[in-house]
Amino acid sequence: MLNFYNLVVYNQNLKYLYSLIIIIPFLIFLHYFSSNKRKSILKNFNSNIVFLNKKYYPLKTFFIILVFIFSIFALTEPKYGYKLEKIYSSKSNILIALDISDSMLAEDVQPNRLERGKREIIDLIDNLQGEKVGLIIFSGISFLQCPFTSDYSALKMFLDYIDTDLIPIKGTSFSNLFDIALKTFKDDKQEKYMIIISDGEDTHQNFNEYINKFKERNIKIFSIGVGDENGSAIKLKDGSYKKDKNNNIVISKLETKNLKFISNNTNGFFVKSDFTDDDIKTIYFKGIRNQNNLNGSYYQKKIWNEIFQYFLFIAFIFLIIEFLISNIDEKNKLHI
């Protein structure tokens, strides 16, 4: 990190400054080359042609160089001055399990259950205050999509690529999800929470063995039911609707029984997804933070002030000046 009297540029952005070493000499060379070329052309074309504004040409190049310099400085995302902000650091690990089975394509919530589930995760991330969070996707089998991390932007990036086609084995298996979840949590002193986002449909109903394992390791499970109890047809990507073996359209309904049973027996609770973020706030603030508020700590963090916009503004001013000089240049030419 480059720090000069509270003017800060992070190392990953210094490469833009290094580019000036190439760009500035190149622009100077281009100025002299084009200037000489211009003179040569005019001399061969008509020696009587005179430009009254020769003095403006170097000035134009000078302002173009300044435009490049200040634009590149803006790319480095410079920061000047900072304020100290009190940051909460949690000792919690939150594992999110997102159902990506075909039934999550049902449109009884808009735009569909899967997209609503992703929105729930984003709402959670926006409320987190230092917790580490991981992501499992599950259908017929489960995969750890993102290990525990404090890089919330990286987790949001993973969400962009999640689709029902990621897992070829169809159906919904909570048992396989629980196997992966138990392996993901480490036996340490961190508080452990799991949030299941699903429509609750499952063909394996025996959860007692897993509930005992979660309780032994003090893993609390919260669940968010996505969908409607009245159900909806499952609209596939090709625009058709999913049908059963008898060629009847499948109606998928929100099944809350499994989700409530799992959560209530692991010291968590169930909420139904809604259009606001009240559902995820209920889980986070009344469930996770309420149980964890004595286990975290606060520290002070420097929050630097962004000033890239000032460099862009100055570059824009120089660009306007260069443009005005170009107009002067056109108006002052003497033609035969």
Task: Kindly describe this structure.
The chain has two domains: 2-82 and 305-331, no CATH class; 91-295, Rossmann fold (3-Layer(aba) Sandwich), CATH 3.40.50.410. Helix 7 (208-216) links the parallel strand 7 and strand 8. It has a six-stranded mixed beta sheet, with helices on both faces. Strands 1-2-3-12 form a four-stranded antiparallel beta sheet, with no helix packed on it. It has a two-stranded antiparallel ribbon with strand order 9-10. By secondary structure, the protein is an alpha/beta fold. The protein is elongated, with a radius of gyration of 31 Å. It has helices at residues 14-18, 20-45, 56-75, 113-127, 152-159, 174-184, 208-216, 256-264, 278-292, 308-331, and strands at residues 2-4, 7-9, 79-89, 92-99, 132-138, 142-149, 191-198, 219-225, 232-233, 251-252, 270-272, 297-306.
User: Which architecture of the largest domain does the CATH hierarchy give at level 2?
Assistant: 3-Layer(aba) Sandwich
Beta-strand content estimate: 15-25%
Fraction of residues in helix: 40-55%
**Distance between the amino and carboxyl termini:** 58 Å
**Class from helix and strand fractions:** alpha/beta
Principal-axis shape equals elongated
Radius of gyration: 31 Å
Write down the overall mean pLDDT. Answer: 82
* CATH level-3 fold name of the largest domain: Rossmann fold
Neighbour order of strands in the largest sheet: 6-5-4-7-8-11
Q: Low-confidence runs (pLDDT<50, min 5 residues)? A: 47-52
The counted number of beta strands is 12
CATH class of the largest domain: Alpha Beta
Q: Could you give a short account of the major beta sheet?
A: 6 strands, mixed
Number of domains: 2
